[in-house]
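Researcher: Good morning. I'm working through a list of sequences from a screen, and I'd like to move beyond sequence-only analysis. For each chain I'm collecting a predicted structure so we can compare shapes side by side. This is the next one on the list. No need for commentary yet; just the structure.
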Amino acid sequence: MTDDWDCEILTTCARDAATWRNEFAAGETTIGGVHARRFSVARERDAASFEAHSRRVVGGGATLAEQETWLRAQGPDAPGLTAHLAAHADDYDAVFFYSYLYATTHFALPSVAAKAVLVPLAHDEWMFWLSVYDRTFLSSARVACVSEDERRLVSRRFPGAHVCDAIVAPGIDVPITDASRFRRRYAIDGPYAIYLGRVDAAKGVDDLVAFFLAANARDRRSVPRKLVLVGPVSMKIPAHDAIVALGAVDEADKWDALVGADFAIVPSAYESLSLAALEAWAVGKAVVANGASSVLVGQCRRTNAGLWYANENEFVALLASDLFGVAGELGRRGAAYVTEHYTWPATRLAMLACLP
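Model: Good morning. Structure tokens for this chain:
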């Protein structure tokens, strides 16, 4: 967007969505070559308090005030960001909000609603159906979705929203990779499957680990020797030689790990668009996905480059099938699809088409 516009990023000082702890300095800075302003989060997330608020609103029937209290508990509560946007609304021609879920969007968007482009990153989760988000979606000048599946979901939930025809999916850039470099650095030999993303039960990783160990126990010859988990860890991982949790790694190591894998697994049931799947396909890897996610199934069907499972038995059977015989062809189809559809020039044109 900087080719056409003077751009500015408004964000918080937090790094971790589990705590919203202020870790960056407040004030003006540069992010990726773009001028940015960071605002302090008023308070860290209190997990116990947030869970208590969630229990009060999850069943429905909570008042708008109770839902907004829940939103503040979820965070990030950055009153300086909200105040800045209200005070400088006339300085901006358009404001993109990512995503619908968090307090920053809900409290800051109304002051610039006529210029707001909401990129909701929505999926069919219980929070999506809360009435507190009606104003967010219905008052936005435009709602821009990252996949056709998300667009259909949003249009069904909010028939009065101004949903863009253009899809603002991200472009995928593949760097120069070296799988052997990754293997040497982390002392990993033999075949492995890979998971990319937050290592969290909320992402389905607890089931993935259990399913993989079940498949491994059934027939070690028909499955990769290891499951490599790449991403920040926020759950307990069973001690087992077949499970390798690397934690957060840099981008070079991530891409090297992906290129060296036999295939990628995406176990989340809740996605608006799986960037992990797109990155796997971009380097010619097949994807095994959680069939509970209509978005993932839709991506697998459109690319004709992925398979999916509904439960542990199907996962075990899938890995014991002739997956390795077709993984190469699936990966080639995925690479061709990503090359055609997920480029930054296409993303830029889509974003321009969504401007108010």
